[in-house]
Structure formats: C-alpha cells, structure tokens
C-alpha cells in the first residue's frame, strides 16, 4: 500500500501544479499583452 499512496500523492500534486499552470498562463499572457498595449497607447 505505501507505493499506491506515494503514486496517488504524486498524481494529486501533478494535478494541482497542472491546474495552477492552466489558470496562471492565460493570465500572464493577458497581463503582458495589456502591458505592451498600454505602452503603445502612452507613446501615441
């Protein structure tokens, strides 16, 4: 049973990290896009 618990823990940790990345990556991309757009607006 310890092997199964270790595997389950790794799987849960992987799912948490994967879910976190799926949520954060679009936000980071949007933030960068918004930043460059704001730079262009201020220049013009």
Spans of at least 5 consecutive residues whose pLDDT stays below 50 are none
Distance between the termini: 65 Å
The largest sheet, given as strand count, sense and whether it forms a barrel, is: none
Mean pLDDT equals 89
Q: What do you see in this structure?
A:
The protein has 44 residues and is mostly helical. The chain has 1 helix and no strands. The protein is rod-shaped, with a radius of gyration of 19 Å.
Any key phrases for this structure?
single chain, 44 residues, mainly alpha, 0% strand
Please provide a brief summary of the model:
The chain has one helix and no strands.
Helices, strands, pairings?
Blueprint: H1 2-43
